[in-house]
Amino acid sequence: MKFDINKIRSDFPILKSSVNGKPLVYLDNAATTQKPQSVIDTVTEYYTTYNSNIHRGTHHLSNLATEAHEAARKTVQHYINAGHEHEIIFTRGTTEAINLVAFSFGEAFVKPGDDVIVTTMDHHSNFVPWQMMCERRRANFHVVPFDEHGDLRLDVYENLLSEKTRIVAFNHVSNSLGTVNPAQDMIRMAHAVGAAVLVDAAQSVQHADHDVRELDADFYAFSGHKIYGPTGIGVLYGKTQWLDAMPPYQGGGEMIDQVTIEKTTYGKLPFKFEAGTPNIVGPIGLAAAIDYLNGLAFNDILAHEDDVFNYGRDRLLEIDGMRIYGNAKRRASILAFNIEGIHHYDLGTLLDTHGIAVRTGHHCTQPIMTAFHIEGTVRASLALYNTREEIDALVAAIRKVLKMLGK
Amino acid sequence: MATIQEIQAQIIEDFSFLPEWDEKYAYLIELGGKMAPLPQEYRSDENIVRGCQSLVWLHRECCNGDVTFQSESDSLIVKGLAALLMRIFSGQPADEVLKADLTFFQEIGLNQHLSSQRANGLMAMIEEIKAFAAQCITETQ
Predict the structure, then answer these.
(1) C-alpha closest to that of B72 among B97, B52, B55
(2) Which of A22, A86, A195, A258 has its CA 20 to 30 A from that of A151?
(3) What is the pLDDT of residue A366?
(4) Chain A contact present for B114, CB below 8 A
């Protein structure tokens, strides 16, 4: 199907809204994306016509809800090309998925003195859980730095890898710099020393390659709300061999096989890792979002996003005193910047008065801010529905703000 | 000296002449710009009120049951908001500060800056001002 930007924009009802009397220009997609009407309708239809608890009901509605929930697992499986449906575990989001692995993998495989590797450009969600695990398991926490362009120092990474490395975790696309890390190479290098790899795909599943078998990722985590789906639903993919060998993360209903006073045996995958009544509608809404993306050609989405990204970078650089953070070899969707003499909070707040939604602050990546000796940035992050015209609106609004501030 | 309520009423009136957002912010930035700079010796680590996005310093003094404050921020908007707080609270009796109900942010439409403590440290600043007022009352008794 041809990539028709006007049609796509009309699929997202919120994009028609006004903010402070100005047309909304939504450039905070790395924080969360807007939802197409089909996702909104799917969620509404669930609550309107077949809301019910799943997996154990004998009644009609429960069967409908169970079927839709499990069909969603298949939709996710196919989207990321996982080998098995049971390798898809539903979580609250990327953060919970990573915490699950940090805990359960740590319990099963990490001994005192082992090594765990993350990177300086990882989101706190893919940093703190590993620090916590290393403290608990008395393992060594190592961090791969990035260079002045925002590319990971693969030479340092290679030196850190050894037979003591149990697991490596890194983001495929940085939420603060937009760097697209060479995931396939990094995974191959880790596997060469026998280490497992978790890919934080929160910013890549919608903007870059997302074939887990081609990547050969051991674990792969992402959030539904950043890929045009509902909030509160995330996905953890894990290879069967690892998931089978890992203890459950939480105990409760749904995850058991037999419970006696003496001992509980656990259910099969994926339910072993899905204790309690799950977010039933979340996966159903997420599947609707994936169906929406599947109705477009992914290469067309990437080409469009690249075009708007490159245009945005060039237009922003026309502004005096502009500094864009990150100039990596491959980048996606994130334009993080500061303007000399202007506080990021002031710029973000004043852009809002022009209807422009950006994020300001450290973006939950304080080690990156420390590396650049800054407190924060303004971040414009793109999605498939953004346009060159919106970049023009951003640049025009920045110029107005600068004028107001006497710059 | 005008009471806290009177000053709040005055601020609400001042802002009532500024219906547009950019006017409100321009005025706020102007207020921040007029605030006396915080002397270097008060820009100490213990005077930092840490918000998520901006640095705020708050210097406090307690004298005969009155509290005085001086403030500074690296963000012009937060500095303007701090200037409003200084105007309201600095030089007031500690017990009045402690029981003051800040209604003006809502009235002038700037309550979004209070809605999230993580956003700019303004809420943290108000909490520190109140805590210091309580401490001043104890010290004076």
Answers:
(1) B55
(2) A195
(3) 86
(4) no
Q: Quick: pLDDT tens for A66-111.
A: 999 999 999 999 999 999 999 999 999 999 999 999 999 999 999 9
> Residue A256's pLDDT is what?
87
Give the helix ranges, DSSP H, for A36-192.
37-45, 60-80, 94-109, 128-137, 154-160, 183-192
Q: Which of A108, A126, A183, A181 is nearest to A151 (CA)?
A: A181
Q: How far apart are CA A337 and CA A329, in angstroms?
A: 18
> From CA A194, how far away is CA A202, in angstroms rounded?
25
Residue A160 is encoded by which pair of tokens?
Answer: 């850190």
Every domain of chain A and the residues it spans: 5-30+297-404, 40-294
User: What CATH topology corresponds to B4-38+48-140?
Assistant: Sufe protein. Chain: A (3.90.1010)
Options 1.10.3900.10, 3.40.640.10, 3.40.309.10, 3.40.50.300; which CATH number does A40-294 get? 3.40.640.10
What mean pLDDT do residues B13-20 have?
91
User: Which amino acid is it at A91?
Assistant: T
**Nearest-by-CA chain B residue for A402:** B26
CA A250 – CA A273 distance, rounded (Å): 7
Which of chain B's residues have a Cβ under 8 Å away from the Cβ of A350? Answer: 22, 25, 77
B119 pLDDT higher than 60: no
ipTM of the modeled complex = 0.89
High-pLDDT (> 90) share of chain A, %: 89
Can you give the residue ranges of every domain in chain B?
Answer: 4-38+48-140
Question: Average pLDDT in the A39-50 region?
Answer: 98
Residues of chain A neighbouring B75 (CB-CB closer than 8 A) = 343, 345-346
Are B29 and A20 inside 8 Å of each other by CB?
no
pLDDT in tens, B90-118: 999 999 999 998 888 888 887 776 655 45
> A186: closest CA among A117, A125, A120, A239?
A117
A153 phi/psi in degrees, rounded to 5: -80, 90
Could you give the 3-state DSSP secondary structure of residue B50? Answer: strand
Distance CA A329, CA A186 (A): 15
Tokens of A107: 């319990």
Query: Of A121, A179, A127, A162, nearest to A145 (Cα)?
Result: A121
* Contacts for A241 with CB less than 8 Å, ≥ 6 apart: none
Nearest-Cα distance to chain B for A30, in Å, is 18
What pLDDT, on the 0 to 100 scale, is given for residue B115?
A: 59
CATH architecture entry for A5-30+297-404: Alpha-Beta Complex (3.90)
Model's pTM, two decimal places? 0.93
Residue B60 pLDDT: 96
Q: Give the C-alpha separation, A201 to A173, whole Å.
A: 7
